[in-house]
């Protein structure tokens, strides 16, 4: 029995090791050198994520009776370079021999079974791939985050909502661009992000964008445009809400998902040729078909052009110049793994944007079915929650207020004019998504992380971050501190017109319900803890310190910058851009420069390990 | 009041027996007449199901409190005293014929409710009765007397019937025979032989398809009133294609019969589909018929649990055995099922004809690796190919012993084509199954591996038997003639050996389904066909002189121009303000939002049938909002009854 115990603990240690190796599987959409260009805050974020994962592991190991294998740190450090490969093939180190004793009693058998289960779980964990991904925001800045292969695009979006403080509306999406092929597509919220990224080539110039893509959800907002596309546009425009609702019911809520019955003439780029040939295409649930020359449109005569099993649909850009396409309204179907020009990529081109959208949406419905609708509903729920939350912290005069202690603090910063909103107690607590549980890694960060925080390599020497950064228990405290500390400098003295808080006295758009205009709200959102940018804020602010130092401001700038351009659709003209110019300026991310990024990280990790 | 003689024929006494005469007055109510009649016959039995039928007026005298005067009955009336429930030969969508007692006196709607209750079919409002097509080829018919399953002994009851814990109605558990019949109802029938299939009537045009719809019985009148006699044949069919709340647990019979109706609609080209769709339908039918033989009742098992269990089990076994390293233990988990073989490998190069070379192949996880030889297989492979997301296609000819697996493997530059040539069937089946699993991102440890191998082998066997002899195709269950899975159009287009690989190809995507899942999938694909749910009627629109076709769907009406075959107009019910039938000129007039008015007369079916279709679909759409499970019969008749409802 001792043998077996020893064997298992060794085994588990090895697996932990493996897990850590996987952590080092780095990925960046830009060339490897550009890792250096990561901004300080990105690096910090990364470190936080890594620490989180590591901490979690360490705790788990401690929870177990057996000590972690002694050689943990050295071996993982040594193998950092091979980390990449290890993720894919997971070479399993040979653990010691196992000897089983014939005379085992039942209890032992049970113990054994438990351990097997544990081992299996750990094995699964060990196989989890994690990528570090750089997401481009609308303003040209970027966020770097760690994504593991179990996370869906939805999880990542939620993560980004926390980090960017956009208005969280349902149209925010992650998009993939392939500049070489002139393609882009919106990831579906239920997709796993890691898998498609693994298909990118090493030298890929592909990018991931965080953008609002209204076309993603258009079919649920105006289903008539897709399902009754033959009717005249005017009639479609006047469609009543209840009829729209009915259409969604009919097509997405029955036993079978109905794909819009589309038919259109497309120009098809012939395999490997430069010419484009016209054909009449039809969309069916089972694939795209065309009507052969001289045949009728009856189903039995249709020729199958392709089926969707292994294909994704993309929008093509500038195909007129690149491929001499008749128009610039192109859609492309290809296997997600194909990254370069190939005869296996299908190019279709139609006469107008309307048709293009109709088809791309139709193909998505055929391919993903009810998941699209589920995604949409989830996104809307989230948007509602976050907009309610946003409204909560915005002053609104209409609410008779009975300020409760919790609220008071949240209001301090807007201080002056209107009474605090009473909503606080009704609304769900700020942690970003009550609906979905947060994705595993961030969760880990929240729960087991606090001890790790001090070790973060901050450019400044602030006192350890206060607990307020941990969003779980008493979140409402966080925002006020931040704002209270930051506002005065640029707000109290008559601020420049563009100051973010200028809209504080209840800005008209805010009260018009759903999502308030981003500039007014973003700063009010409680900072989600995993974001190191935020933690810089809070940590700097917690004890009564002097005005925030420049580095913090620099970190804040890109974050605040994200949203404005994207949110055009929602109502009122966007008020003057965001932030506090006075705060801007500083460092801007020159820090991460020298040395090999990987080795730097390794050093950091090792140091941490030493601390334990 | 004057007393007069009323003569009544009592059916139970035999047709030769003269009518029984009772003395009545005009103010005697019908109940009184029946009482006198029963006393006069002096037969002591249960007469409770008996009622009077007035032959000249073709109506039942069901209101026992009405007087003869109120009914307008005089001495010359020819009355029949007979049971309301009589045997009926009912042909189900599956093709099985049952003999059961149905109510001849209530409106057909209610009669169908009774039948469905007996057969345990929920939502009877979706079904109705059709008069069968008369067969002209009666001379040939005597050859095969069809089986008729008798249910006439099932007690009639108006209250809900008790059910056993597993959902079987109690009356089907009475005897082994009854249980067998219930099984017949709830299990799909084997595929028909291609010869039978080829002989059956298939509509050739949309006008042909319209004719069947002239045969629906009127839901608001009784069987007796529509000339249906005792022991006549009628068809039970799903009429309204709005299937509410299908719940496999409770809907075994309903689901099975629905599947059968859909299957026959596909096979007989009642609904059009593409070739690819036909192959998928074929594959599903094959799978369903195979699974229903091994898995008698619809149930779903959790594959994930099985997986874990078997993995743990294998670990246990391993650990109990002689000492082994934990390393092997891991291998067990991930590479428990390891395939390695010498396989001839071929990578086509442009402009090269043949380039087969032998390599030692290994299958691990979802990848294949190959080595120069077995000895070198411990080291680095020459190449490792991850099959996830690749396309796998067979290139097999059993006769010439050609067993090729064609792989299209995605790579950043495009798809790489690779051929694996196997030596024999056994090897081919294993590697093919492995490649298929790999392409779906599954490892060999997946519990579908063995069944995948099985099905590949049985498809190979099919090809063999078809190649050899053509006669005994139905000899074993293992070999189904693939021609019986597709419509006769494809019998001409493809030989069996061409068809089989295509169905097998489609089959790989459905092989892992449980019976219920497969049936549901079949129904879903059927429902996703563009023409699904359309019932056709030839009509003539007001102001037009040519025949056109009106298609009636669950949510809309469509107008089809016969000369072009295209849908020229669509009207949705939710824009409909009202519809009226002018029974005198047999014209249906409908008004839609925005002052759109249409009117048409019906050429192939009575306008009552069209009226009932429209009203019926509107009724169906009200169900979801209705909280209670009880059927709102009154509303149905209000919407579909026409002048008779008044």
UniProtKB/TrEMBL annotation, chain A:
Its main location: membrane. Residues 62-103, 387-612 are annotated as: Disordered. Residues 416-443, 462-479, 490-532, 542-552 have a biased composition (Pro residues). GO terms for cellular component: cytoskeleton; cytosol; plasma membrane. SMART domains: PH, RA. This is Amyloid beta A4 precursor protein-binding family B member 1-interacting protein. It is found in: Cell membrane; Cytoplasm, Cytoskeleton. InterPro entries: GRB/APBB1IP, PH-like_dom_sf, PH_APBB1IP, PH_domain, RA_dom, Ubiquitin-like_domsf. Residues 72-90, 393-406, 444-454 have a biased composition (Low complexity). Pfam families: PH, RA_2. One of its GO terms (biological process) is signal transduction. It is a peripheral membrane protein. The keyword Membrane applies. Keywords: Cell membrane, Cytoplasm, Cytoskeleton, Membrane. Belongs to the MRL family.
From TrEMBL, chain B:
PROSITE patterns: PH_DOMAIN. GO terms for cellular component: cell-substrate junction. SMART domains: B41 (SM00295), PH (SM00233). Keywords: Cell adhesion. InterPro entries: Band_41_domain, FERM_2, FERM_central, Kindlin/fermitin, Kindlin_2_N, PH-like_dom_sf, PH_domain, PH_Kindlin/fermitin. It comes from the Eukaryota. Residues 336-440 form the PH domain. GO terms for biological process: cell-matrix adhesion; integrin activation; integrin-mediated signaling pathway; leukocyte cell-cell adhesion; platelet aggregation; regulation of cell-cell adhesion mediated by integrin. GO terms for molecular function: integrin binding. Belongs to the kindlin family. This is PH domain-containing protein. It comes from Mola mola.
